[in-house]
Amino acid sequence: MDRLRNKVIVVAGAGGIGGGLARRYAAEGAAVVLGDLDAASVAATVAEITAAGGTAVGTALDGADEASVNAGVALAVERFGGLDGFHANFASFKDGESGADILGLPMEAFDEVMRVNARGFVLCTRAALPEMLQRGGGSLVYTTSGAAFMGEPLRLAYAMSKVSAHALVRHVANRFGAEGIRANAIAPGVVSHARFEAVMDPDVVAGMAARIPVGRLGRPEDIAAMGALLMSDEGSFITGQVLSVDGGNSMRQ
Ligand SMILES: NC(=O)c1ccc[n+]([C@@H]2O[C@H](COP(=O)([O-])OP(=O)(O)OC[C@H]3O[C@@H](n4cnc5c(N)ncnc54)[C@H](O)[C@@H]3O)[C@@H](O)[C@H]2O)c1
Prior knowledge:
Layout: E1 8-12, H1 16-27, E2 31-36, H2 39-51, E3 55-60, H3 66-80, E4 85-88, H4 94-98, H5 107-135, E5 138-143, H6 147-150, H7 156-176, E6 181-188, H8 194-199, H9 202-210, H10 220-231, E7 241-245
Bound molecules: nicotinamide-adenine-dinucleotide (NAD).
């Protein structure tokens, strides 16, 4: 549990899964910068990490805004001396909220999801890479989704945005691999956490769990365990991959 000692990691997106990522990275010894639009959720997680003896600072961060993302990376460099890892984890779910298929989907919802999830992940990569290259290498991790390859009647923009992140992973891994940069996506299945439970019917949740081979929904800790491996030197031969962490829900080649 000490694999990330002396590493500096930015986690962008501090919700259910993001909180789990930040706690795990700090528990393994990393200095963490945690950013989100939601200042309260950032503050709560940073307080938890600090109380447990870890190192974390929080910041207001809009992952879809170039200046804001650059400021998040600059904060990591100023406070902790450089950057070794960046986990782009935030997402807009606006098209799912619209409840519409392609024919009814408001194009404003489509544009917003692509602006945040697709363009935002590109901005994060452009902000993080120069600092990592200066350091001699680093690990970029992106939270995507099983929606990228499962096919669904709704959430078209969400799925398309997550597919785009997979292309981004492969570009970064290929172009910068020789310079010590690794890039991978974690594609979660359904992950339960407080925000998720607040809006889900327990009977629906039980039905979902029954359809997953391991018989339960995911937890933020499941995603964080994969993230910690990818951020650590133990993951040094893993790059350019989309890794499903979903209890066997998708069994693709
Ligand atoms: N929970 C699941 O079942 C599940 C499944 C597959 C993939 N995912 C992915 O996991 C990631 C985290 O999702 P979650 O379940 O923790 O949801 P969540 O709603 O708890 O967290 C998402 C966070 O992103 C933040 N955010 C939104 N737009 C932002 C922006 N422009 N800049 C910065 N922060 C912004 C929100 O404020 C929120 O804190 C997302 O990328 C999501 O697509 C989740």
